[in-house]
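ok so for the tutorial part 2 we go from a plain amino acid sequence to predicted structure tokens. step 1 is just haveing the sequence, like this:
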Amino acid sequence: MNQYLGQSSKSKQSQTTISRRQFLSSSVATVAGLSMVSRLVADEEKTDLATNASKALIAISYDLEMSAGYPIKGKPRNAYPWDHQKGNLNDETKQYTVESCRIVKEAGGVLHSFLVGQVLEHKNVDWLKQIIQAGHPIGNHTYDHVRITAKNPNDIQYRFQRAPWLIKGKTPAEVISENIRLCELAMQQRLGIKPAGFRTPYAFANGIADRVDLQEMLLSLGYTWISSQYRGPSNVNHKNPTKADFDAFIATHKQHQPYVYPTGLIEVPFSPPMDVGAFRARSWKLDDFLQLIEKSVLWAIENRATYDFGVHPSVMYVEDPEFKTIKLICNLVKTAGDRAAIVDLGTFARRARQQYEKQNQKRAQQKSVNNEKCL
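step 2 — the prediction. this is what the tokens look like for a chain of 375 residues:
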């Protein structure tokens, strides 16, 4: 009897264990399925937004790095060694980023950040995980904030001028490629995500149009779009911008719409004005900055175009501690109703790809018509 009870108990325990395993397996599959459905729904929504040419696409993007001359206004530009420690984010910058994401999320949008990999050496990255869990994308900004167009080792990053042994025996191209991959690896291991696009440190008037080698390198690394182009107007007044200055900035927005390079890589420019140029280089007041941002967003809405407000939280928490700029953008988009949406830069890239493919189809159709006429 005891032996029977023992076998029966063991059998029940085995059945219970199997049931639990089956339940857990089923639960995991269900969660995975729901996650996949969620991703598919999100992708479908992005495709719909990209396809809707009657809707303006507005992005708010942050470069998560420290900026020379900050956080204390009035200090000499070289008071902080953050050109060598770009990832050394202070708590204020982290908190400002988290709060900005919350504000944009409540407005129905997402905030697209680009991360310098050094940030992931910090002991605590819960603030980044919080952003990710809320649905905000994070892209690759290289590991050490390197200049990807550099052809001389001394031009890659100040850090390597101080410590040239870190890149000894490597070509600039090898260092740059490795730095991009290193940031991606750090994001995967520390945050459990793949980068949502790539933004080059620094910016280039023509993007990387004249560097086919870089386009091909980025494509080979798995990136379908990048953000590298920025061309603000020259000869703009310092401290007290005029209406003519604002008009000069607005005129540049047509040049900052996403497009496709001949290699197939998509360029997603970020739009003037940049915070560093406005506040550090020109010493603008916040009210002037707000006025230009308002004009820029309204231009995009009126023209059903794209506009990417790309700035640095390490600058903005000093210059705009009350989040007036992103609140303004959110309110303008809300007022626009169905005419505008706050989206990630991947949606910008989708629109560029769709427009590119439509143009190719039209060319192919026209070529076919012309061939038929010749026959």
